[in-house]
Amino acid sequence: MSRPESDTRVRLDLNNPIFQRDLLDLQRTERHAALNTLAKLHQLTWKQVYRDQGLHWEKITSLKPPPGIDALYSLRITQSRRAVAYREGDFIRLLAIPPDHDATYGKK
Questions:
Q1: So what's the architecture of 8-98 in CATH?
Q2: What is the pTM of this model?
């Protein structure tokens, strides 16, 4: 018997080269905070991700998603940074950690 969608645990995809570059370029304190957030995500169900006030999972409406992706989302990965990601099945596919809030939403 399969679990209901809301009980499905999040699976992380950290393989995007831009995300990896952004993560490794963070200052040490921010990098550790980001890794703590990733560890937290790994333990959550999708229902918990959607409700978590600290992550603040939010659809990005100001950017058109690439072909084959329904929507892009942002989530708080550190106190001062948000990550761009999308959901594909059980996976959260992390794409980037823009340098500032406006860049997350495609604004200049």
A1: 2-Layer Sandwich (3.30)
A2: 0.87
